[in-house]
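#dry-run=false #mode=assembly
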Amino acid sequence: MLFSLINLNEIIMKKLLIGCFLVSGFAVASSNVEETRLCDPENYVYVPITTSCGKSAVASGCTTEDIVADTISWDQFLCEPEPLP
Amino acid sequence: MKKLTIFIILIALNSSKYLYGQESNQAFFYAATYTADSTNVDKKGTDYMVLWTGDNYSVFESYYGFQLDSAQVAASKQSDNPKDLNMTALLGTIISMKKPSFKFRIHKSLEESQITVYQNLFFDNYVYTQPLKMTGWKIENQYKEILGFKCQKATIQYAGRDFVAWFSEEIPLNDGPYVFNGLPGLIMQVEDVQKYYSFELVGIQNSSIEMSERVLPKTISLSKNQFFLTKKALYKDVRKALMGKPSSKVSDEDIRSVQKRYDKSNNPLELIVE
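#status=ok
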């Protein structure tokens, strides 16, 4: 229930943010993010992780594949030394 | 009758190739280097890339990404329900593995004359297409050896940069690393004249993988131009990448540190999006 409320707030916030983006490419991409990221909140699993540079994050998703992919993304987001331009 | 049977079998085999995808028969490994920050050219990033090739089809991707994917597939095969697995141990293994710098998977289809680029950007996967054909190669009478193969020089302007390539007719594939293709032999080495980006062949192996499976899941389909606009917007403000992420409680200090790294990532391979 708590997670459902959190998700509801995040969805509302996200829709408000999307409305603010004027750059066409980003607007298109943002509107599609919702479809690709979210699944039934009841099936969501949250796993606390410690990234390779020692920073904490929470990987989440509905399937094993989702959570592994999210872990890799978090690790790269927080730790990747030289992001490719 | 026997000939007819053989003919039917051959037709069936050929059709199955399209039904079940494309299988590679060789893998060409490339050492890749890149310069993320044009104000600090001595600092190079590296990756280890692989070009899987089959009949009229190829995939170019980071081998580190391929290894991560294999671990992900193995875990999903155990159970796709994360509640059935020891996720802490599994994710610990994933975190300890080498990560790709080049987060794209480039599919070249000779039959469709098209390149399809699957690319991960922060927490989402994107896909766009572009024409396969590269026009404007200039072949020169200069030769050198790479891995014992006789290679010839060729040059091209692509996406706002001048590139020098070395191809070998001893490997009769009109393919190469990244989106490069269209020479009368495999491109063994290619780099821009400023030496910001470089791909060099370091190994060849017979290898059979299902190339049609080397895609990214849950992709957002964009035009190439839209993709690059999105990338630019996200790099400029990395906080946007966390939009809509459940439990995205990252400290302001961490965000500032991530933004600092992305601000230094200012030297893309493609300067002009055509």
